[in-house]
Amino acid sequence: MADIGIPILLIDDDRFMRAILSQTLQDAGYLVSQATNGKEALELCRTNYFPIILTDWVMPEMDGIAFCRAFRKKTAECYTYLILLTSQEGKDKLIEGLEAGADEYLLKPVNESELMVRLKTARRILDLESSLQKSLEEIKQLSIRDPLTGVFNRGYLDQHLPNEIRRADRYVRDFSLIMMDLDHFKKINDTWGHQAGDAVLQHCSRIIAGTIRREVDWVARYGGEEFVLVLPETEQAGCQVVAERLRNLIATSPCLYRGENLSITASFGTVSRAASDSPDAVTADTMLYQADQCLYQAKASGRNRVVGSSL
To answer: Does some domain include residue 2?
Structure first.
């Protein structure tokens, strides 16, 4: 039996053949969708993902070979296993089908046992591809995330902050940046040890994650105890509100470490650019520099405060 619920797209202009194959596949536990030619199938594939597609070779409007070629040109996140069904024999035909993008080749009339074996092979390959994609995604996350806090790392910030600024320019949107630094962090490490310092950084990262907008704002670890918060479509007043909220939450939420409440405060430097600002005047370096200068002022004037500016 197949894994219940695996979608399959069956493409064949012969209604009788479609009915027979569809019933066979449904009896094996697959979810079957049908199309009468390659053109109709491509339309279905625009809005649906089919891990396995069985397509006849000879069909009107768009045959199986043309469908395979067109389908393989699409950009897809997940792989689809294509099985070409045909009554045409010969090595040349087999090569033509495989070169068009088919993974497998079955002669008609289709033998049910042979079809089930080929589908089992398809599922095995799809499982391997899924595992590979998962591993690649995990590797990607490791390359862009800070291993201690789980937020983005400096490399990600350096690469993506310029893109965010260009996007704000293109769509004429407000844009803000917050640079945050934990106060007297060295004292925490010296008094309680580096593991306590790690716990404090993780604690603050969770507070930040719970404060910013999901899938809009993002945060990166900039240095040892410094974080940069990127706030697209946020004007200066809104940026100040976010920074002040964070400042208050950190100051009033001690980090519990081995039964002790470790008090923490943080200083903030913010910088904002209005949608009307000239694009030429705004770069990632200028915004980071201005936020750093504001952070320095917040530190110099007593810490545990927010100092902001606009470009």
So the answer is: no
Structure tokens at 148: 């201690």
Query: What does the alpha-carbon distance between residue 52 and residue 119 come to, in Å, rounded to a whole number?
Result: 8
Query: Which region holds residue 304: left if phi is over 0, alpha if psi is between -120 and 50, else beta?
Result: left
* pTM over 0.70, yes/no: no
- From the candidates 96, 164, 225, 235, which is the catalytic residue? 225
pLDDT digit string, tens, across residues 230-289: 999 999 999 999 999 999 999 999 999 999 999 999 999 999 998 877 666 688 999 999
Q: What's the CATH number where 231 sits?
A: 3.30.70.270
pLDDT at 78 over 90: no
* 9 bridge partner residues: 33, 53
Q: Is residue 225 annotated as part of the catalytic site, yes or no?
A: yes
Same domain, 159 and 136: no
Cα 261 from Cα 38, distance rounded (Å): 66
